[in-house]
Amino acid sequence: MEVVIFKNADNVASRGAGLVAEMLNVKPDAVFGFATGSTPIDLYRNLVARHRKGELSFRHTTSFNLDEYMGIAADNPQSYRTFMNREFFDHVDIDKNKTHLPACESSENPQLVGPEYEAKIEQVGGIDLQILGIGYNGHIGFNEPSSSLSSRTRVKTLTRRTLEDNSRMFTDGEFQPKLAITMGIGTIMEARRILLLATGKSKANAVAAMVEGPLTAMCPASVLQMHERVTVLIDEQAADGLIYREYYDLAHRENRALKKRFGEFYASG
Ligand code: PGA
Fold it and tell me: pLDDT tens digits, the chain, 269 residues: what are they?
């Protein structure tokens, strides 16, 4: 993994946006995997600002989100579709018909929705750049601890910890779904490039387990150790538990020098 540590969350967001911009330069019709949650919001704001300045366009892109709650309609204020429209899609020139979430209406069979979502990803040639956050418990998407490392898009029951973490988004008495449909870990691993963002000290344990811990379904993000092109962008606080911190800084400096000579997409995991 390429681990890059920044002073603060703003720097993480702007480097993340820089990598999205690099991808768009190389491939204007890139297929993106997008994530919801608090962490990527600053990244989306940064991208919107760059778009407004005329620096980048999403006109030819396609996107697939990691997950969506079960049992709430797309126009529900709590749906991830609403989140993506509000935080990003409404403010850029992306064609909403080419933005996808694994939504499952209550009349639909989730066992069919998952494979259909996978088929759509395959039809467009797979995901070029997948953006990820990480849960306090090491989840990616809604792949909670104990998820199969080969899993595909399917229904997951959320852990009590995830429900508690996300309860901050819901008002008292508001329906909070306990089930979600999420891309599987196997699905995520097929993205050609992965960008994981984490900020704040509450993520330090999960980041340390992902980067330096054993490969285990108990920390689903640790599977990223098996992916060839993962860039982990974190701030000082999220880096707090890393033993090899100094090494990552050194490797990052060396990689930057190599990138200058051999092109932006030089990356070493
Ligand atoms: P957060 O969620 O960005 O809101 O912390 C991350 C995640 O659960 O993947």
Answer: 999 999 999 999 999 999 999 999 999 999 999 999 999 999 999 999 999 999 999 999 999 999 999 989 999 999 999 999 999 999 999 999 999 999 998 889 989 999 999 999 999 999 999 999 999 999 999 999 999 999 999 999 999 999 999 999 999 999 999 999 999 999 999 999 999 999 999 999 999 999 999 999 999 999 999 999 999 999 999 999 999 999 999 999 998 888 888 876 545 44
Nearest ligand 1 atom to the CA of 140 is 9
In angstroms, the CA 242 to CA 8 distance is 16
Ramachandran category for residue 74: left, alpha or beta (phi over 0 → left; psi -120 to 50 → alpha) = alpha
At 193, is the secondary structure helix, strand, or coil? strand
| Structural contact between residues 170 and 236, judged by C-beta atoms closer than 8 angstroms | no
Catalytic residue among 51, 65, 68, 137: 137
Is the CB–ligand 1 distance for residue 37 below 6 Å? yes
159 lines ligand 1 (CB under 6 A): no
What pTM was estimated for this model as a whole? Answer: 0.96
